[in-house]
Design goal:
Length: 275
């Protein structure tokens, strides 16, 4: 428009000069030809500008596309997208698919980067799981002896204790609790087992466990081996004194072999035993 205005101004200026220089008889043919040429040039220039503007308006287009394993805002929206051949079907089925529209080869373009569509490829790594709030094996725990600083509690199933050969002031650590000590195997023969020396052969069967006596079974025949039995009472000049019970198959009726010492306790005195 500025060039057109300039051309018109030049034309008017030339026209004015032409009017001043025209002969009295009205002959101005050369000047009029020059003005006509200027007008034609200006019109041609305006048409050229209009043609180029229309061409630029029609050829300025945006290509929608997406790429595998690379996210970019190439699908026509503000969100990034990428080609997801796993989450999107070839027909565009899936969450956030068809991000670039329904064009050929665009069905598996998928938006990414939010909670609905999921992360973009190459995005930040997922946040690692927070560390456990309790202390695990070999980690310091409890109050540190030298400073009193609280180190935390052990996880379930662990105990907080000083490590072996710890120096004074050392911190406690979490460890597995010690295994329970198995009950000691009773030493000596148990109730009903043979004991002492077998009279008919002289074979030795061992001693009874503590609290038991090695005595003949009820109604035993000569030469029968003694067995271990529970003491259930005592007898003497004052009569019988039952101090313990027997199982339902036995009764407190058998007595120590005479002579015996009524003033001695247990298996050393005049005891009664279950038989």
């Amino acid at each position: 428009m500025a060039r057109l205005a300039l051309a018109l101004a030049v034309m008017l200026s030339v026209r004015a000069r032409a009017d001043e220089g025209c002969a009295a008889d009205g002959t101005c043919q050369a000047d009029e030809a020059e003005a006509s040429a200027l007008l034609q040039s200006s019109a041609a220039r305006r048409a050229d500008v209009a043609q180029h503007g229309a061409a630029n308006a029609t050829t300025e287009t945006t290509t929608l596309t997406c790429y595998p394993n690379y996210a970019a805002a190439t699908c026509g929206g503000a969100m990034k997208c990428f080609q997801d051949t796993t989450g999107c079907t070839t027909s565009g089925g899936g969450v956030c698919c068809k991000a670039a529209g329904n064009g050929q080869g665009l069905a598996q373009c998928k938006y990414c980067g939010d909670a609905t569509c999921g992360p973009c490829p190459g995005g930040p790594a997922p946040t690692p799981a927070p560390p456990p709030s309790c202390r695990t094996v070999n980690q310091q725990c409890g109050n540190w002896g030298s400073t009193g600083q609280w180190q935390g509690s052990c996880c379930s199933g662990l105990v907080c204790e000083l490590p072996p050969y710890a120096v004074p002031g050392a911190s406690k650590v979490c460890s597995y609790p010690p295994r329970p000590t198995p009950a000691p195997t009773p030493s000596g023969n148990q109730v009903g087992e043979k004991c002492g020396s077998w009279g008919s052969t002289g074979q030795y069967y061992g001693q009874c466990a503590s609290g038991l006596v090695c005595a003949p079974p009820a109604n035993s025949m000569p030469g029968t081996a003694n067995v271990c039995a529970n003491v259930c009472g005592s007898f003497g000049s004052d009569g019988d004194s039952v101090t313990a019970g027997c199982n339902r198959m036995q009764s407190c009726k058998c007595r120590a072999t005479l002579p015996c010492s009524p003033w001695k306790p247990g298996a050393e005195g005049c005891y009664m035993y279950c038989c």
